[in-house]
Design goal:
Elements lengths: L19 E5 L4 H17 L3 E5 L4 H7 L5 E4 L2 E5 L4 H9 L1
Parallel strand pairs: 1-2
Antiparallel strand pairs: 1-3, 3-4
Helix pairs in contact: 1-3
Length: about 90
């Protein structure tokens, strides 16, 4: 991609223009682990993040209840169950 014309290169949004969403539920140890990774990566990069509770949102519950925790980047599913710090960091900076 380095030799590709700048006209055709996709310009990635700046990290602060991204949004990470952690979909979780109370009492979930994997969710707690995921939150620590999300907080670290987003804090390091200045990326805003939010969390949503599947017990408070029927649509999220129906869509994700077997996969929580789920991490969305800009509304698109990035990962579920275990969050890899390096993978999340790469997704937010590439």
């Amino acid at each position: 991609m380095a030799d590709m014309s700048p006209i055709f290169r996709r310009k990635a949004p700046a990290p602060q223009d991204r949004l990470v969403t952690l979909i979780r539920k109370p009492g979930c140890h994997l969710c707690d682990d995921a939150q620590l990774v999300v907080e670290k990566v987003c804090g390091d990069l200045g990326v805003p993040w939010e969390q949503k509770d599947i017990t408070q949102d029927r649509q999220l519950h129906d869509q994700y209840w077997e996969q929580i925790p789920v991490v969305l980047v800009d509304g698109e599913q990035h990962t579920f169950w275990r969050v890899n710090e390096q993978r999340l960091r790469k997704a937010l900076t590439d």
